[in-house]
Amino acid sequence: MVLDGLVTGLSYFIAYHIRFNTPLNDPTVPHLPLYMYMEAVPFLILAYIYLYYKFNLYKSKRLGGRRIELINIIYANSVGFLIFVAVLYILNQNDFARSMLGIFTVVNIILETLMRNVVRYLLMFIRKKGYNKKYLLMIGYSKLADEYIKRIRLNPHWGYEVCGILDDKVPAGTMLRGVKVLGRIANLDVILPENKIVEIAITLPLEEYGKLERIVAKCEKSGVHTQFVPDYNRVIPSRPIMEDADGLPVINIRNVPLANTENIIIKRFIDIVGSIVLIIVFSPIMLLSVIAVRLSSKGPIIFKQERVGLHNRPFMMYKFRTMEMQRENDEKKGWTVKDDPRVTKVGRVLRRTSMDELPQLFNILIGDMSIVGPRPERPQFVEEFREEIPRYMIKHQVRPGLTGWAQVNGLRGNTSIKERIEFDIYYIENWSLLFDIRIMFMTVFRGLINKNAY
User: Fold this and answer.
1) Which of these, 376, 407, 404, lies nearest to 392 by C-alpha position?
2) pLDDT tens digits for 315-339?
3) Residue 332 CB contacts under 8 Å (≥ 6 apart), including other chains
4) How many Å apart are CA 80 and CA 280, to the nearest integer?
5) Within 141-252, where are the H helices?
6) Contacts of 25 (CB under 8 A, 6+ apart)
7) 47-82 tens-digit pLDDT
8) Are 366 and 380 in contact (CB under 8 A)?
9) Is pTM beyond 0.70 here?
10) CB 97: neighbour CB atoms within 10 A?
C-alpha cells in the first residue's frame, strides 16, 4: 500500500510535467500552478489504494497470475479516472486539465505494473533462496497430493514447503515425492495446537469426502488457512459457475461464455468483418494459389470435405487442393503422413505455410466457422474420438475455427488429440475477446509455419 501511494503520487507529478512542461503545452494558454494540482494528491492516493483493494490487488501473489493483476490495475485506474472527472464536473472545476488526468492514468498503469513486477520478482528470488516460506501439511495420500507436490517443486517461487502428509490408509513413513506420511488424520488434534503449520491442503480422494466436514471444522477452529484441492476436476472445470437456488448452491458443470447472447453477437460481428478484411488482404495470394494449383496437377482447385461443426452439425469445409486426385474411400482412410506421395509440390508449400486454409475465410463469412476456435474434424474421426477421449464432444459447443489455442501452441497435424482437446476445452471455458485477439497475434507470429503439416 505504501508503494502504491508513492507510485500514484509520482505518476501524478510526472503527468503534470508531461502535460505542461513539454511541447504538449500551449504557452499562450494559462494553466493552474503545480501546488494547486498537488492539493488533490492526498485524496487521490487514498482513493486509489481503496480501488486497488476493491479490485483484489492486495491478495497473496504466491499463486496469482500477472495477466489478471494487469487487468485489475487497468480496471482500477479506469474507474479512478472516471470518478476523478465526475468529481471535477460536480465541483465545477473547469480549469483542471482533463488531459492531464488521462496522461496520469496511462503513466500510473505503467509505473504500477512495473513496481508490482519488481516486487513479484524480488519475492520469487527470496523464496527460491529458502526465505519467506509457508509450511504446508497435506491431508490425503492421493494422485492430487502427488500432482500438487510436483507443481510446488516446479515453482519454488511460490514459497511453499510440504512438511508432511496425513492419511488413514497409508502407513506412517511412506514417502511421496520425498514427502513423508506422518500419521493418521486424527493426528491433526496434536499437530494443529503446535502452530508450526501455516497452511493445510486437503487432497483427499473422492471416496473419502465423508471426512471433509470434520477436517475443515478442526482446521477452522485452529485458525489455520485451509486449501481444498477437489478430486472431481475431470468433471467440473477449474472455474465453475456457482448459482444460488434459493439458498442452495448449484454448480454448472461447464462454463461456456459463448453461450451468452451478447458474446455470440460480438464474436459473430468480428468474424464477419474480419473475414471480409482478410479476404481482401489475401486475395492476391489466393489468386496466385489458384493459378499454382491449376498448373501443378489435374483436378478441382478447391477441395471440399465434410467436417463437424457447432452443435454437431456437418458442413463442407473448403481448402485449396494440395493432393493428387484420389478416390473418396482412399481419402477417408486417414491423415497425411510425412513425405506422403499424394501431396503435390505446390501442395507441400501451401500446407507448410497454412495458405491452403485461406478458402475457409468463406466458411467463416457464411457462418460455418469462426476465425478462432477448435479445429473441426471429419465425421468418422469424431465418432472414433468421442468414444476414446473423455470430453471430446465439448469442442462442438462453439463454432470451429480457422486457428485455435491448441494450434498456436504447436498442436497441429500429427500431434496428440487428447492434448489438443485439453487446450480446446480451456479455450471454450475461458473465452474472452482479448483471448481471441491474443490467439490471432500468436497465429501471425508463431502459427503460420506448420512443421507438423505434411
Assistant:
1) 376
2) 999 999 888 876 666 555 555 656 6
3) 378, 380
4) 41
5) 143-154, 188-191, 212-222
6) 19, 31
7) 999 999 888 888 766 666 677 888 889 999 999 999
8) no
9) no
10) 19
